[in-house]
Amino acid sequence: MHTLALGRSGLRVSGVALGTMNFGTDLQAPTSEPEAHRIVGAFLDAGHNLIDTADTYRGGGSEEIVGRAIASRRADVVLATKGAAPQGVGPNHRGLSRAHLTRALEASLRRLGTDYVDLYQCHVADPDTPIEETMATLDGFVRAGKVRYIGCSNFTAAGIVSAQWAAQRGAGTPLVSLQANYSVMARAIEAEILPTCVQSGLGVLAYSPLGSGLLAGRYRRDTPPEAGSRLAQWADMPSPMARDFVAGVLAPRHFDIRDEVAAVAAALHTTTATIALAWLARRPSITSVILGPRTVDQLTAGLAGLAFDLPEQAAARLDAASQFTVVPPTNGQHRAALRSGVSRSVDKW
C-alpha cells in the first residue's frame, strides 16, 4: 500500500479516501447497504485504508453502514468522521461547543460500533464558540482514547492558525488535517489555505473532486439539473444558501472549464471524469483525494482516473484554463478574519 503521513503526524493514510455520503438506510439513499459493503470491500482490497463519514450523512445512516461494513477489518481502516451538524432542535445541539461535541462523538461511536475513531474532524467552523474551548474538548477526546487524531473541514486560513495557536497555548493536541473543496474548477484554496496547511502541519483531504458531478458531465449549460440529481435536490430546498450553492456550481465559468477538460479528454480518448481526477492527483500539498462512489463500478472508474498518467502539456492546458484571480481582502476584512479565526460563509446549517 502506498501511503503518506497525514500532516505533521505519524498516521499513514492512502492517497485515495472513500467518502460515504451516499451510504444510507433510507429509501432515498443513492447506495443500498449491500452495495455499500461491496464498495468498502473493493476499496480495502485495492490497498487503500482511509474511510470518511459524518454524523450528518443520511441522518447517521452512513455511520451505521460504515461501522457494519468494516467490523471484521477495523484494524485495517483509518476511520474518520465529523461533528458539528445539528443533532437536535436546541441551541446546544449543534456547533463546536464542549456540550455538543461530547454528545456528538458518543453518538458517532455508537453508530460506528467502535470505541475509537482514528480521525475526528470539526465539520465546519463555529463562530459562536471560542476556539480554545473546541480545541481543549478535542484534546480531551484524544487523552481519553476515544480519538486518535483531530482535523477540521471548511476552515479558513485564519481559522486554521487560530486553532493551532489555541492547541499550542493549552499544550494540547494540534490539528493534523483539513478537508477542503478542491478540483480543477474550484482552486480558491491555493491562495491562502494550502500554504497555511503546509506551514501549520496539516495534510489536505480534497473533497468534491468532480465538482459536484459537473466535471463528470452530469449537468448541461443553461439547463436545470435533472430531477433526482443532487443539485436538483439542493435547488428545491427552501434555504437561500442551498440555491446559491447550486447557482455557484452551475456558473458559466465552470462550464467553460468543463468544456476544456472535455477537449483534453477527447484528445486522450478518455472521459472528463478521468481527466479531472488525474489533474487533481498531480497537485502538490494534497494528501488524499476523497471519492464518493454510489456503485462499485464508479469506485473502479474513480481509482483508474486517479492513476491515469496525465501528460504535462495537458495538465498545463488545464492549469491555464482554470486560473483564478485572488482579490485581496480589505484591511477591515483582514482584521475581522484574524479576530474571529473563522468564516461564517461555511456554516452550512
TrEMBL record:
Residue intervals of the NADP-dependent oxidoreductase domain: 17-321
Keywords linked to the UniProt accession: Oxidoreductase
Cellular compartments per GO CC: cytosol
Keyword Cytoplasm set for record: no
InterPro entries in UniProt: AKR (IPR020471), AKR_Detox_Biosynth (IPR050523), NAD(P)_OxRdtase_dom_sf (IPR036812), NADP_OxRdtase_dom (IPR023210)
GO molecular function: oxidoreductase activity
The protein, known as: Oxidoreductase
The encoding gene: mocA_1
